[in-house]
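Sample intake sheet
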Amino acid sequence: MKKIMLLMMAALAITTISCKKDNKGGEDDEKTIAKPTYRVKSYTHGKDFFNYSWNADGTIAKVELGYDGSVYSIYAFTWNAGTVSVVDQKADNKPIATITVNDQKLATKIVQPGESELSKKKLIECKYDDNGFLTMAKVEGKVNTVQVIDEDGNIEWWGRVGVEALVSESTTATGWRRKMHTYYGTVNAAGIHGEWDEDVTAKRWFYETGLLGRASANIMRTAWWWGIVNDDKTAVNPEYAAKLAYYPLDVDANNCVKKETKLYDTKEKYEADPSTMGPDDEYEFVCEKI
């Protein structure tokens, strides 16, 4: 009898170690999300272009910002323990930002003396999960946005202002809404930030440095707003999506995004119908092996 009890206790201990509680109170297997094997070397957005240089340890070293063939800023990143200093080498090393980073080498605090090509805000503070995904950001002292990551390592949604209502799925809070996403089964090999959280207030090019956390594990397929405020400004309708953005899959042989084209649906629905869509925005990427 004593031996049976010991075996039962051992089995219980193994079960406890191999499972973890999720945020809904259930139990899920521990899952580690694979990291990208490629990274951005450069990308263009209309006439804007951005060129990236990386340190030997994989951290960002420099980003050239240009327009119509001419470089107008060179943001250089100097790493010193838990601090990263950013200066513009095209403007006599003008100070741009001081960034505090955590053990994951992710930005937990960004302080700027004024507006820059990084952000228009002077203070951004961020939190991340164990896999390196952004989960919350404060802008100048106030919570501005949250992100929810699904079990596959994809950004399920990020939310604009009003964190409590977003988390509780309230439908009576004015001005609170989510940007929802769906994904292809294709791995996002270069970690392109197609679903970047705009309400952190940092520019898209800064996301591609990796300092604001990881991109989704798979390539984004669609995006739409959940919970648009009604015309009377008194409630939100969770079933309403003013426009659905659809992104055709365009990758190379290594599953690196070549072109990110956003098409907008003219109908109020959640499923993409390319025949009713028109082009809205486009990015083109060149990636390199890490």
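Comment: Helices lie at 2-18, 163-168, 204-207. Residues 52 and 63 are 5 Å apart (CA to CA).
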